[in-house]
Amino acid sequence: MAETSSNASVQEMCHYIYEMLDAGKPLTYALSRLPKAFTDGDVAIIKSGEKSGKLTIVLASLATEYSFLGQIKSMYIGAMIYPVILITVSFFAILALFLFILPGIFSIVEQFDMASIPTTTKILMKFSKFLQGNIKSLSIGAVILAIVGSVYLSTDNGKKTFYDFILSVPIVSKMTKYYYLIKFARYMKLMLSAGMSYIEIFKLEKEIIAMPAYQDMIDSIIFGLDRGESIFDEMQNHTHIIPPDVLVLLKVGEETATL
């Protein structure tokens, strides 16, 4: 692989794996030391394939899942970008209107009797003058707000607030729920086929799915499994992210051992 690849990083990675294998180390030992290329979930799935003797099947399944989830992710991001672009363009269009276009119109309006000018027009004139007079201060404030916001969103509370907001927006909420549901189900299917235990699966699912609502659900599932309860028993308390028809299918799959 190192000799046939034209990608320098892939060549370096393959040489490292070769050195580890040549030293008698397992494949997953080498992969676990390449965190930029392989996640903990990847390593655990491949390790299960090594132990069960189904490595070729597991690797093929992993490649298929990455390809499928990559397509879904592209569709999801594409759908999310469209409204963001519309909002951004609209914001700058309105800003340009108040800063460059309306002032010229208002300069003509001011030549008339101010008493006869409608109240809404007066409000627009004052707002336009306010923007013109404080554009530098507002720009600095916007930059500071953006920095503070990015720092806050990097925290656990910030991520939770962000995803709670996403899940409250009608159309975006539905897309987000289905995207994470597909990701959750496909990874679970892959790990089950690799022969991993439920506890192992859900611990890895928590790392793979960075959405706080799912992580809370997974924590409750793990806690429930430790007490001898079923997966369905815990998931039915999270219908805000798992649709009822999906819960029914999960229950049937769990009870008939065809999950």
Q: How many helix segments?
A: 12
Helix and strand string, N-terminal first?
A: HHHHHHHHHHHH
End-to-end separation in angstroms reads: 36 Å
Helix content: over 70%
Amount of beta strand: under 5%
The average pLDDT value, as a whole number, equals 88
Number of strands: 0
Structural class: mainly alpha
Largest sheet, in brief, is:
none
Low-confidence stretches: none
Q: Which oligomeric state applies?
A: single chain
Q: What Rg, in angstroms, do the CA atoms define?
A: 27 Å
- What is the global morphology? elongated
Give a quick rundown of the structure.
By secondary structure, the protein is mainly alpha-helical. It has helices at 8-22, 27-31, 40-52, 55-109, 119-133, 135-153, 156-166, 170-193, 198-208, 212-226, 231-235, 244-255. It has a domain at 70-170.
Question: How would you portray this structure in words?
Answer:
This protein is mostly helical and 259 residues long. The chain has a domain of 101 residues. The protein has 12 helices and no strands. 15% of the residues are buried.
List the helices and strands and how they pair.
Blueprint: H1 8-22, H2 27-31, H3 40-52, H4 55-109, H5 119-133, H6 135-153, H7 156-166, H8 170-193, H9 198-208, H10 212-226, H11 231-235, H12 244-255
Helix pairs in contact: 3-4, 4-5, 4-8, 6-7, 8-9, 9-10
Label this structure with key terms:
77% helix; 0% strand; 259 residues; 12 helices; elongated; single chain; mainly alpha
